[in-house]
Amino acid sequence: MIKPIITAPSYFVGEPSVKYFINVKSIKINQKVVALNTSMLAIDNEGYGGTKISMVNPYKVLETSIYNAVVNTFVKEVANIPRVKPVTPFGACFSSKNIGVTRVGPAVPQIDLVLQSECVYWTMFRANSMVYVSNDVLCLGFVDGGERPMTSIVIGGN
């Protein structure tokens, strides 16, 4: 006889969330603030918004307007690296032949999540922001989560 393992959390309406949220105030790429609607970074009165850490999602998932702002800023910062056709589910992919390697991963801009102040931030080093999809293609490891998802930013396991 095999005992099934229950992996879904159990909770009741009104109980505190079992999910882990962090308070992101802004996003920086290459030390430059990404222009985005920061009200989406906080959880609103209806429970939408915020930033959640998830080990279920393999990548970072961003609400559409945040995703577009991050991808556009990142692409401007790596303008000298040739883009290639995107590989699903990613929107920004590059020729890995033109990207050097550092001790912390591919030589691309670092991405910082600014937390309660400019002095407190979570750096996503290059190896944690990029995904090798083949020997020749490296993609920004962020996925478009659609418009008005329950959570604006989900930081996945990659």
TrEMBL record:
Primary location class: secreted
A biological process term (GO) from this entry: proteolysis
Domain Xylanase inhibitor C-terminal per the UniProt entry, residue ranges: 19-157
The UniProt record lists the keyword Secreted: yes
InterPro entries: Aspartic_peptidase_A1 (IPR001461), Peptidase_aspartic_dom_sf (IPR021109), TAXi_C (IPR032799)
Subcellular location: Secreted, Extracellular space
SUPFAM superfamilies cross-referenced by the UniProt entry: Acid proteases
Any GO MF annotation of the entry: aspartic-type endopeptidase activity
Keywords (A to Z) from UniProt: Secreted, Signal
Gene3D superfamilies in the cross-refs: Acid Proteases (2.40.70.10)
Pfam families per the UniProt record, alphabetical: TAXi_C
One cellular component term from this protein's GO annotations in UniProt: extracellular region
Keyword set includes Signal: yes
Similarity comment: family membership: Belongs to the peptidase A1 family.
Protein name: Basic 7S globulin
Species: Pyrus ussuriensis x Pyrus communis
Taxonomic path: Eukaryota, Viridiplantae, Streptophyta, Embryophyta, Tracheophyta
